[in-house]
Amino acid sequence: MSRFPKNFLWGGATAANQCEGAYNVDGRGLANVDVVPVGEERLAIITGQRKMVDFEEGYFYPAKDSIDMYHHYKEDIALFAEMGFKTYRLSIAWTRIFPKGDEVEPNEKGLEFYEKLFKECHKYGIEPLVTITHFDCPMHLIEEYGGWRNRKMLVFYERLCRTLFARYKGLVRYWLTVNEINMILHAPFMGAGLYFEEGENQEQVKYQAAHHELVASAIATKIAHEIDPENKVGCMLAAGQYYPNTSHPRDYWAALQEDRENYFFIDVQARGTYPNYAKKKWERLGIDVKMTDEDLDLLRAYTVDFISFSYYSSRVASGDPEVQEKTEGNIFASLKNPYLESSEWGWQIDPLGLRITLNVIWDRYQKPMFIVENGLGAIDKPDETGHVADDYRIDYLRKHIAAMKDAILEDGVELLGYTTWGCIDLVSAGTGEMKKRYGFIYVDRDNEGRGSLKRFKKKSFDWYKQVIASNGEDLD
């Protein structure tokens, strides 16, 4: 018996702002992710503590050009097809479709670009999996309306969705509404176009913006099903189960609270109502989230069809204020787990944690799942021919795919597919670096934007091709 379903969707994932480049081509407008530079101030900007609304002298902005997939997409998709991809996860750059975000009519050049890209995927039998907003908000909407803190964003997002669902009917069937929606709590400018004024109640702003994003997700699900009943709409979570640091009950309680903070969003998107623990938290913190009866009706009626998530590592929580040793992670840090090895960026490696996370999500929601990000960021060193012997990446992915196998066959979870993150090298969302590489395909570009942009296959390219051809059975 094969451990993976016959129609399992193997593939890879990228995001527009991390790979497309061409930031000012064919009418595209300026987005929040464009104006986030590499360097010491990057974290302050993506967390909304340092206001940057345009390009400033003395900074390098990697998203401007990235790996220029805008002009290389045919070459890149051909390489994905050579690996045997069944699906390719990508995102829409909102400002290619509506350059300012509040226009009534879309930008035809932007619509044409994605139509050609989707058709190129279908030419090779690759199913597009499209994230509507992946850390992407038009700067005009941020400056004019305050980003997702403003309820008017519902109108602009709905217009975007109607345009996409109508134009790409028959070309796209799998949609994700908001990438890593829980990142709004950890990187609010990147996640929702939020920056804060001095003295402002930041938790109030973040949860109000989160409510607007959740309602927008329900609206998107409603419209997607109305326009094409074949559409499947998913939510997207930055996942990774929290372990208690010790068997002390206060550590277990701390882990439970951390998990709830992340699952709060998916509780709403998958179950349709705000959980009591969230309401009580808001009550304790004096947070008053403005919502209407219509909002609550939408959330209840239009839950997602499946749950997608990124997984890079598990996390650790402690109720002891003296326990402070942190490790790096996907934007937000965790306590260090002494039983795990770490990547060059300090992200801890835990394949069994993926199986645990799959089981927790399945037990909690009983909805199909899709792993849409997983991978190892590492410094790759090509030889004189451009080849990279990335056995460390193969080892990481092999162990995580084996954990997926166990979750499906031994535990009975329902998994639709698996897309590795950064299947082609791209700009890191967290650090803005190019040297932090995830791909099966090496792109000749460095942290300062230098390089030929030539593509080279790494050793992992042929390995993943073999994994897909065997439907996950041959991992050697």
Automatic annotation (TrEMBL):
Protein's name according to its UniProt entry: 6-phospho-beta-glucosidase
Gene of this entry: ascB
Active site: E373 (nucleophile)
Family: Belongs to the glycosyl hydrolase 1 family.
Signal peptide extent: none
Enzyme Commission number(s) from the entry: 3.2.1.86
PROSITE patterns: GLYCOSYL_HYDROL_F1_1 (PS00572), GLYCOSYL_HYDROL_F1_2 (PS00653)
Source species of the chain: Streptococcus danieliae
GO MF annotation terms: 6-phospho-beta-glucosidase activity
Lineage, highest ranks first: Bacteria, Bacillati, Bacillota, Bacilli, Lactobacillales
Domain of life: Bacteria
Record flagged with keyword Membrane: no
GO biological process, one term: carbohydrate catabolic process
Enzyme class: hydrolase
Keyword Hydrolase: yes
Alphabetical list of Pfam families matching this protein: Glyco_hydro_1
One GO cellular component term noted in the UniProt record for this chain: cytosol
Record keywords, A-Z: Glycosidase, Hydrolase
